[in-house]
């Protein structure tokens, strides 16, 4: 993954301690105007560092990655019960405009 320019993994630290991380994946639409977009996964901030600006730093860094790659939008999915996370994303300008689906893949 570290050699793949389509993946961006920002990390925010407090001195030598990791406070949070996320993963952004550069994707391409295959229909319409074929716009570039970002898919965000695994936004995690240590509970000790929540509500202190570390999550905002992660997301702003991802937005800059999107701007550098001429992306038109960012998609992220958050579990339905994570209402605090939803308020956080809304405070950064994200809106709920679609419904997501997930299916677990069974192995063996």
From TrEMBL:
Keywords: Acyltransferase, Transferase. Transmembrane segments: none annotated. It comes from the Bacteria. Coiled coil: none annotated. GO terms for molecular function: acyltransferase activity, transferring groups other than amino-acyl groups. Pfam families: Acetyltransf_1 (PF00583). The keyword Acyltransferase applies. InterPro entries: Acyl_CoA_acyltransferase (IPR016181), GNAT_dom (IPR000182), YpeA/RimI_acetyltransf (IPR050680). Residues 1-108 form the N-acetyltransferase domain. The keyword Metal-binding does not apply. This is GNAT family N-acetyltransferase.
